[in-house]
Structure formats: structure tokens, C-alpha cells
Amino acid sequence: MRSSNPVFSRRGFSRDNGYAGFNAAPQAGGPAVGTQANPYAQGNQYAQGGNPYAQNPYAQQDLQHGAPPQAPVSTGRMTMDDVVMRSAMTLGTVTVGAILAWALLPVSSTSYGLAIGAALVAFVLAMVQSFKRTASPALILGYAAFEGVFLGVISEMYNSRWSGAPFQAVLGTMAVSGATLLVYKAGWIRVTARYARIGMTIAIAFVVVTAVNLLLVVLGVANDGGLRSMGPLGAIVGILAILIGAFFLTLDFKQIEDGIAYGAPKEEAWLAAFGLTMTLVWIYIEMLRLVAIFSGDD
């Protein structure tokens, strides 16, 4: 079963065993191997007879001819170019929304309220998309636009107090993403069922603890933000959150790699872009807070 939570929903989580998709093809840039040659093929949702993209006529052609499930250039299959293009569109929409919000909405209580409203709309759109079995470009781009408005207002608020914080956060997000991709492609991280299970357990626990902390702050039980304070404890929690974001990036990379290797339909590129966008937004927000903490009060 796929998670209904848009943050935890990844195509690699499959059917009854939940994590079979993460035991798929080699991830360090090598070609996908056939069922008999793949030591992880047993119980793998992508193995012959269990390929979630088997309904794709291009994938069926490979299976009928006994060829390894690789993805040659085809208009019916997802390619890396498709993923890059859809990701550029989605992230571009976030960026445009953020720039417009920064330029048109001055820092005030009204703009803060609009930011919260935009975040709620973005969350609803993300939830709707997560429950759909197919990608909806309109929902994904709508999510990106409203998320951009939220990020624009929040970034301007941080910049008004900690000058240059958004720019540093962008650089930090790029550094974390680039380092994670490098480590993943080098094969230093293996996205296996055990890796995914441990990472998801930590991520879910983090979200639950964060939600409880927020409730305690609202009720006045925890002072100065509790675990999310602007002090050393808040910095430690922020670093943990960024590491969790990097974990989600590895799941995104695996999703993209498996989709290309096993003949995913071209529309799956939108879901890959959706996942990448949510993860990068997560990392950026946490990086923004971390920069503010280390910058100190002006």
C-alpha cells in the first residue's frame, strides 16, 4: 500500500510487503538486470510478473522478447529528460510564485496570514494528488504555485531579520542535494528495504514528535518553541530534519531510476517531479531556520 501522506508517499513502496520496490536494479548507474541474474529479484515488485508498469505496452515488449527491463528512447516511456523537464517546470513554478509573493506582499500580519493560507491550500492539493493513482499536472503545478507563495512570504520575513538568509538557504539546499546525489550515484548508500524501513521509522517519529511539540507550544507548555527553538537544541533538531530530507532524496532518486529502468509510463515523470519538489521544499525550509539560528539575533 502506498502512503496517503504526500511526504511519505514514494512509488518504491509496494503492495503487500511495503518495501519490495527498493530491492530493484543496481543504483550506481548500471543497467537493470534480468530476474534470474538479480539476487534481489525474489519478491521484487519489478521482477517479471510483478512489474507495476507491466501494463505499459513498451514494457511488455521487453518481457516478451526476454530482454532485460531497460528503457530505450521511446515516446511511451519515462526518460531522464522527461524527469528533468517536469522537475524544471514544477520547481520553476515554485520559484516564480516565491518571487511574486516577495515582490508584491510586504512583511505584515496580513502577508503572514496569506502565507499560512497558501500553505494549507498547497497541502490540500498535495493530499489530493497523493490519493490519485495517476499524476495530475494541474494539481502538481497548483501545489507548486501555492507552495511558492508560502515560501516567498516566509523567505522575505526571514530576510528582513536575518539579511541574506534565503540566499544562504538556497545554497545550502543545493549543496545538500548535490552531495546526496553524489553519494547515491557512487553507491555509498544502498536504498534497500531495511534502509527504507529504518529511515521511514525515524522520519515518522520525527513528524509525530514535532507535531506534539507544536501542540505544547500552542498550549503554552513549551516555551521559546520547545524543540524548535532558535537555540542549540533547535539547531540539532534542524540538522536532523535536513538529514531526513536527504533520506527522502535518496528515495526520490531510486524511484526515478527504477521508473526509467523498468519502463514506467511517461506520465510517471510528473510524480517524480512532485516528489523531488516536496523534498527540496522540506530541505529549504529547514535550511532557512538553521541559517537563522547560526546567524543569531540582530
Provide an overview of this structure.
With 298 residues, this protein is mainly α. It is built from eight helices and no strands. Helix 5 crosses helix 7. The relative contact order is 0.17. 62% of the residues lie in helices and 0% in strands.
Helix fraction, binned, reads 55-70%
- Pattern of helices and strands: HHHHHHHH
Which stretches are low in confidence, meaning pLDDT under 50 for 5 or more residues running?
1-26, 28-50, 56-74
β-strand amount: under 5%
Structural class: mainly alpha
End-to-end C-alpha gap:
48 Å
Biggest pleated sheet: none
Rg, rounded, reads 20 Å
SSE layout and pairings?
Layout: H1 57-64, H2 80-104, H3 109-131, H4 137-161, H5 165-185, H6 193-218, H7 232-261, H8 268-295
Features:
mainly alpha
Summarize the structure.
The protein has 298 residues and is an all-alpha fold. It is built from eight helices and no strands.
